[in-house]
Specification:
Blueprint (H helix, E strand, L loop, with lengths): L2 H38 L2 E3 L8 E6 L2 E12 L4 E11 L8 E4 L3 H6 L5 E2 L12 E4 L2 H7 L2 H10 L6 E7 L2 E8 L6 H18 L5 H14 L8 H7 L15 H15 L1
Antiparallel strand pairs: 1-2, 2-3, 3-4, 4-9, 5-7, 5-8, 6-7, 8-9
Length: about 260
């Protein structure tokens, strides 16, 4: 028996096993998502036989979307498929910005927000990014409770998260490996996302307070303050190259007039 035939047979077995396992997981995913959609009254779309399903609808007043996302990976020289869950928040931030981790960091950096904040929180990772139009507003919004909620979502293995507020929309999204092929896994992710969403949601009156922070920052221009003693000692303010005009005091004027009369005499 040729060695090449043995190698071909081994490769074939590996490919067939991988394809069979993929088909099995995809079948389980479709069945689980269909059952979860029926339980939560969501719209379910099976898509083609070899494509992952999708779900959309409302859960406790929030719009949820479940689908498969693909991320380009330079290391793998191709795309990496992940399961994505998105939740649309009801509130609206007064500024545009985003908080992100994992592969979402590069996406946020391409948006070109002018300000980035580093939060003094023990659970905040330097690998994450928080950026937006106004650093003061972003810092005021990202309370300790919200940073903790973000870090709890990151406890899952190899996940990427983005909380983005742009074009009057606030959106929370998590991308994770695995197909979520059981109803139990779907329930766990849905509950974790709903809990985080309710924390990230703006509280009553918070939008007005954040707008006040934004307005205060835009009008906060430091004024030059000088004491009278400073003016007396400096002899007034002038440009460095500006010539000083001689000002005649009353005593100097009287002395000049006396000298003039003496000369005339």
């Amino acid at each position: 028996m040729s060695i090449w035939f043995v190698l071909w047979a081994l490769v074939s077995v590996v490919i067939l096993s991988f394809s069979g396992w993929t088909m099995y997981i995809l079948y389980k995913q479709k069945m689980a998502w269909k059952a979860f959609a029926a339980k939560r009254n969501l719209r379910y779309q099976a898509n083609t036989m070899m494509a992952s399903p999708e779900m959309t609808g409302e859960i406790e007043g929030y719009k949820f979307s479940f689908f498969t996302s693909e991320h380009v990976s330079q290391e793998l020289r191709g795309g990496r498929k992940m399961t994505a869950v998105e939740v649309t928040l009801r509130g609206r931030m007064p500024i545009e910005g985003a908080v992100a981790s994992g592969v979402m960091v590069q996406l946020v950096q391409t948006l070109g927000f002018p300000a980035e904040v580093r939060l003094p929180h023990e659970r905040w990772s330097p690998a994450w990014v928080a950026t937006g139009e106004h650093a003061s507003v972003l810092s005021a919004y990202l309370s300790d409770e919200r940073v903790t909620a973000f870090s709890k979502l990151m406890q899952a293995r190899n996940v990427s998260i983005i909380l983005i507020f742009r074009n009057n929309v606030m959106l929370l999204r998590i991308d994770m490996p695995g197909a979520l092929e059981t109803v139990e896994k779907l329930e766990k992710v849905q509950k974790a996302m709903l809990t985080a969403t309710q924390i990230f949601e703006l509280k009553e009156g918070e939008d007005r307070r954040l707008k006040a922070v934004e307005a205060q920052k835009s009008t906060d221009v430091p004024a030059l303050k000088l004491d009278k003693s400073d003016l007396d000692n400096a002899g007034g303010l002038r440009l460095e190259d500006e010539p000083q005009d001689h000002v005649t005091s009353p005593d100097e004027g009287a002395a000049e007039a006396s000298v003039k009369n003496t000369d005339e005499a």
